[in-house]
């Protein structure tokens, strides 16, 4: 069994089959997308790390009704990229995974800086690119004028 199939089975146990979206044609750049609740994120990431996956990237998304984190996990195999989507209600935080993946130290700082999502337990949450006294998050849709602000279910169905 390939690593991606093994992780698909693991994710089914963690989050349920209804929260998984298979992308067999790799059209969206991932083979699998899973919606992961915040309360199991750390355990899921620990499982990925134990199985030999690495954290490729982390970004935030801003919808009208919620924020979302997208963790791209990958492995040195063809077509193994998996997206973990973590909905984050506005004003709430998510646990850091920097103790599992050291690369998350910088990635979480960047997402916090640009989207305002707080990573609880992060050892050094301070700006990377914006001035120290910046009181705004430039990738949030409420910053400046935005014409394409949609609700999460409008995008994902």
UniProtKB/TrEMBL annotation:
Keyword set, alphabetical order: NAD, Quinone, Translocase, Transport
**Domain NADH:ubiquinone oxidoreductase 30kDa subunit residue range list:** 35-143
Molecular function (GO) terms listed?
A: NADH dehydrogenase (ubiquinone) activity; oxidoreductase activity, acting on NAD(P)H; quinone binding
So what EC number does this one have? 7.1.1.-
One Pfam family in the UniProt entry? Complex1_30kDa
> What PROSITE patterns does this protein's entry cite?
COMPLEX1_30K (PS00542)
Q: Which reaction does it catalyse?
A: a quinone + NADH + 5 H(+)(in) = a quinol + NAD(+) + 4 H(+)(out)
Coiled coil residues, start to end: none
Give the EC class as a word: translocase
Task: Tell me the domain of life.
Answer: Bacteria
Spans traversing the lipid bilayer: none
What's its job?
Answer: NDH-1 shuttles electrons from NADH, via FMN and iron-sulfur (Fe-S) centers, to quinones in the respiratory chain.
**Membership in a protein family:** Belongs to the complex I 30 kDa subunit family.
> Could you identify this protein by its name?
NADH-quinone oxidoreductase
In its UniProt entry, the species of origin is given as: Desulfoglaeba alkanexedens ALDC
